């Protein structure tokens, strides 16, 4: 705190007294020589008394002025925000808290909790009481530095308080760092980036656990392990979780039943793939790519582009995405995964699917429905976009089996494949989706000849069931020419999607 220190005057007073004494008329030695001895003694004693009184007066003045300086040093404390001076720390604190309360309080943006900022060091405190104690430490420190006092009791208290606050701050920073590291590890584990192994390791662990629990016989374990190792070696899916022919059954159902449906559009035929023991909990993106690719492989339009490529296994898909990254697609996304997917449980999304399809010379588009556009937080524009996509052929039949490829649908935490759309007689629309989380046993029930509307419950998605804040879709539209592929690879360096609305 700033102190007002008065100008000392004791030395000037002494000088004036000395000057007055020295400027007295000089006495001739004769005056002393002709005086009686007793008069000389009296004069000498008076002179000594006068000199002694001057010395005592000087000491009293110095002592008084010293005490005044000390008292003023302690009492006159200046406000850090204005020029007001107070006699005590308590008066100054009261002045700051009443006259400058708006400078002490700062509202933390984006948070409802009131926080307070120190006017000296900008430390943010969670309460006014903590701020008051912190400001008191600054005042003690300023007082100690201003007076240059020795390490007495108050100084020891200040040093102890400062040490305790530093220890508390250090512990708080350590706790925040531990929390951040723990949250980061949880995110790594959640998204498969914790180096805990990939498809192969998880498959073996789950099969060994099944044997230990009696749900799998040892010989069955060795058979499944051999099949898995062979599949991984050649890079092909073993088809153990595949269900074929569902779309053909749906077409027959809508032709003969489903009287509440006015019109229905179906994509080109495809296979359903289910999460296995090796990718359960994280493999939905890879399984949806297998569904999409199974449809493209059956479409003559993409025969020359894909050259009869079989449906790859998950580890092969991971290697294909890494190859797309090496070719220059989506460098920011590659950096997010540290350029490595194979051997991990990393989740993939719409951006990785888009990059992989473009790498395979397929013309596709990625559309981001970044906010709800319908009542109750629904995505009416998403439904309208899908309807326009399937109905663009202009076929007016009740059941339209289009040549359109299925649509990859992504939201936070999961992805599905859109295979068609229903239009009800009341005007409502309903998406038909294949979910990789739906077990193969349930999908195979749709292959029965006598299915009814209740069997389609696991495929239907009405607007009220799609209420996530954001959805992204990837749709294949054709084949890329070499120059188009190069342009899209260059554009993916700053990856952007179409935004609707």
Brief overview, please?
Helices cover 49% and strands 14% of the residues.
What do these coordinates show?
The chain has 501 residues and is α+β, with helices and mostly antiparallel strands. Helix content is 49%, strand content 14%. The chain is built from 18 helices and 16 strands. The protein has helices spanning 10-22, 29-33, 37-75, 89-99, 101-104, 128-147, 153-190, 199-212, 218-234, 246-256, 284-297, 303-306, 314-326, 331-336, 350-359, 380-390, 440-444, 482-491; strands spanning 77-78, 85-86, 105-107, 114-117, 124-125, 242-243, 261-266, 272-273, 362-369, 399-401, 407-411, 414-424, 429-434, 460-461, 471-479, 498-499. Strands 7, 9, 10, 11, 12, 13, 14, 15 and 16 form a nine-stranded mixed β-sheet that branches. The longest helix is centred in the first third of the chain and has 39 residues, at 37-75. The chain is elongated. The relative contact order is 0.08. Mean pLDDT is 81; it is low at 1-51, 63-75 and 106-112.
Structural class: alpha+beta
Count of individual helical segments: 18
**Unreliable parts:** 1-51, 63-75, 106-112
Radius of gyration: 44 Å
Mean pLDDT: 81
- Main sheet? 9 strands, mixed
Query: CA-to-CA gap between the ends?
Result: 58 Å
What portion of the residues fall into strands of 2 or more residues? 5-15%
Helix content estimate = 40-55%
Overall 3D form: elongated
Tell me how many strands there are. Answer: 16
């Amino acid at each position: 705190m700033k102190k007002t220190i008065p100008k000392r005057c004791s030395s000037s007073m002494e000088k004036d007294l000395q000057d007055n004494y020295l400027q007295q008329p000089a006495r001739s030695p004769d005056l002393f020589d002709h005086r009686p001895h007793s008069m000389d003694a009296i004069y000498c004693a008076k002179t000594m008394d006068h000199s002694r009184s001057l010395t005592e007066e000087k000491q009293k003045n110095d002592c008084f002025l010293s005490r005044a300086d000390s008292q003023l040093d302690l009492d006159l404390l200046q406000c850090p925000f204005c020029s007001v001076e107070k006699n005590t720390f308590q008066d100054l604190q009261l002045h700051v808290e009443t006259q400058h309360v708006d400078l002490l309080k700062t509202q933390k943006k984006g948070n409802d909790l009131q926080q307070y900022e120190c006017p000296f060091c900008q430390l943010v405190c969670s309460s006014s009481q903590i701020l008051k104690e912190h400001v008191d430490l600054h005042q003690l420190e300023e007082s100690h530095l201003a007076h240059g006092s020795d390490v007495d009791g108050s100084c020891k208290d200040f040093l102890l308080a400062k040490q305790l606050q530093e220890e508390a701050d250090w512990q708080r920073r350590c706790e925040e760092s531990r929390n951040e590291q723990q949250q980061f590890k949880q995110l790594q584990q959640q998204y498969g980036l914790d180096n805990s192994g990939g498809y192969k390791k998880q498959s073996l662990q789950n099969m060994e656990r099944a044997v230990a629990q009696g749900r799998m016989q040892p010989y069955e374990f060795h058979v499944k392990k051999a099949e898995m190792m062979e599949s991984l070696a050649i890079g092909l899916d073993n088809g153990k979780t595949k269900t074929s022919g569902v779309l053909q059954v749906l077409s027959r159902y809508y032709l003969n039943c489903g009287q509440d449906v006015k019109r229905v559009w179906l994509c080109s035929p495809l296979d359903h793939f289910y999460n296995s023991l090796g990718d359960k909990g994280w493999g939905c993106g890879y399984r949806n790519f297998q569904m999409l690719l199974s449809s493209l492989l059956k479409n003559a339009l993409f025969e020359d582009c894909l050259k009869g490529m079989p449906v790859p296994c998950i580890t092969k898909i991971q290697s294909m995405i890494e190859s797309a990254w090496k070719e220059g697609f989506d460098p920011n996304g590659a950096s997010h995964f540290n350029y490595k997917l194979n051997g991990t449980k990393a989740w993939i999304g719409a951006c990785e699917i888009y990059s992989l399809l473009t790498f395979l010379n397929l013309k596709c588009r990625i559309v981001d429905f970044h906010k709800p556009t319908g009542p109750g937080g629904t995505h009416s524009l998403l439904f309208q976009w899908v309807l326009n996509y399937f109905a663009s052929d202009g076929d007016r039949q009740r059941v339209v089996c289009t040549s359109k490829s299925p649509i990859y649908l992504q939201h936070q935490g999961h992805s599905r494949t859109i295979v068609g759309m229903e239009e009800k007689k009341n005007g409502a629309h309903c998406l038909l989706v294949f979910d990789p989380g739906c077990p193969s046993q349930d999908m195979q029930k749709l292959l029965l000849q006598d299915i009814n509307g209740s069997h389609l419950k696991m495929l239907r998605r009405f607007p009220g069931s799609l209420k996530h804040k954001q959805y992204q879709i990837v749709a294949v539209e054709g084949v890329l020419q070499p120059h188009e592929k190069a342009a899209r690879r260059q554009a993916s360096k700053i990856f952007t999607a179409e935004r609707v609305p």
